[in-house]
Write a structure and sequence with these properties.
Number of helices: 18
Helix content: 55-70%
Low-confidence stretches: none
Order of helices and strands: HHHHHHHHHHHHEEEEHHHHEHEEHEE
Strand content: 5-15%
Largest sheet: 5 strands, mixed
Radius of gyration: 47 Å
Shape: rod-shaped
Structural class: alpha+beta
Strand order of the largest sheet: 5-6-7-9-8
Number of strands: 9
Amino acid sequence: MIVVAGIAATLAYGWLALTADAIGWQFSAIPWLYVMAGLIALQRRAGVRIGLLLGLTGLAYTMLPLQSSRIPAVWTTAMALDLAIIPALALLLLAFPDGRLKRRWERAFVLATVIALVCWTVIPMAWLQPNAYGCTDCPSGLNLLEIDDPLLGLRHIYEILPNRVYFLAPMLLLLAAVCVLRWVRASRARKRITGVVLLAAIPLLLAMTTQIIYFSFKLYDQYPGFVDPLYQIAMYAGLAHPVAYLLSLWWLWSRKAKVSGLVLELAGQPSPELLERAVGKALGDPTLVVGRWDGERYVTADGCTLEPASEGTRRTTYLESEGKPLAVVVHDSALLDDGALLNSVGAVTRLAVDNERLQAELTAQLEEVRASRSRIVAATDGERRRLERDLHDGAQQRLVTLTLDARLAAASSSDPAVRQSVAAIADGLTVALAELRELARGIHPSMLGENGLGSCLQTLAERSAVPVRLVGVSERRYPAAVETAAYFVVSEALANAAKHAMASEVVVSLAETGGRLVVEVADDGVGGADPAAGSGLGGLADRVASVDGVLRVESAPGCGTRVVAEFPCVS
């Protein structure tokens, strides 16, 4: 809709310009550039107010070309608004970049320019005829505002008033001084936004002031050679000013385009320094500081307390998550002029900081789960060792004593029947003792802590129902938790090979690679083992993971089974 309206206005201006005498395509292009900048600002939502003000300034610039028209309505409007460019420029410059007049003196200044427009161009139209404006070939009735007697008294008052140059020239010079002062006092971030516009406005305002003085005092009679240079300077200064607005708007849009890049840059888990640098780059403020909420205060990337700012050129934007403090961004106050950009970058920053917080919480939870799992496994191993000691020191010793007593009783008895019966009891006690020792070894091998993993694997190989070939097994010692986990992996794999695999040989190998102990048990059986089917390997995964290890089971039907466990922290 905005584009359609702009095209319609442009076509209308083109048609009206055809009715006027040519004054040079450069000067005619000035309104087009202002209107183009305004339409782009409206279309891109860079600022509705500033877009409308740019269009209004372009409309004011059309008054000079249209003064050559011989259509009464066009000529009258163009002459009555001859000075409309002054209040239009004043409003545009003072309200840039957000389109608002924030100070009382700014509103008073713009009102003064409007009053000057009404007093020195609109009201005199009531008695001035076209030839008074230098229009020697103008037809009668061209001035639609011309009336006769009622305003003759007011006309005489105007004849004794000072020349309009005494009001308009100081206004333009004051506006130029304001532009210079604002540029000098502007922060680095604000200069990036408004600097090119303010600098381009200064030669335009000085050229307009010179023209007003030159023509108001009719200096062209004394210095006719200055007419063309003044016209050229005013024309090119007028062309440069809307181009400066286009450049400023383009810079604002290029910053907004960086928001998508900021999302990608902060997609991972950025460091506080990277986050601060990326946000400052996206907003064009290298002095920007991001502070995270640690529960009591806002902390900067270097760990210092960040105090929010609300005075001078610094402002603070607070970021929250679910109503709770999350972070603050202390930035240049100029960034408040582009609230949409600040909100977009703030949303990305909030997402990055919140993601970092969630990542930290998740990492802490994972560490707690890992530590809890290690504690559970350690407690289980402790209970296994306690049971093994209790069996060894209690039940086993008792069975050994009873077996010896039975042997002695059998040897001392003279009755063959009693001796045979007691000997049978002694044999039964011997079998029970062997079974109990076997059970104790399964609970926790006592020799693991004494002789190490190598000796225990040798014992497992000797006791295995399937022939076992050991590769790379040595007497080297490893951390106790690693040796225990590796022992139970081999023990369970050998038991499965004997019960389910129908293997003819099992190969147990140990190797050290990159600071990790790799334990592998491979058989040549039927394969098809499933750790989730209750074979006993599934429970080993938690034990291996408790020491930051990894357990893999590879078992295809007809290709045997391969169990691999990797453990870190090889001593």
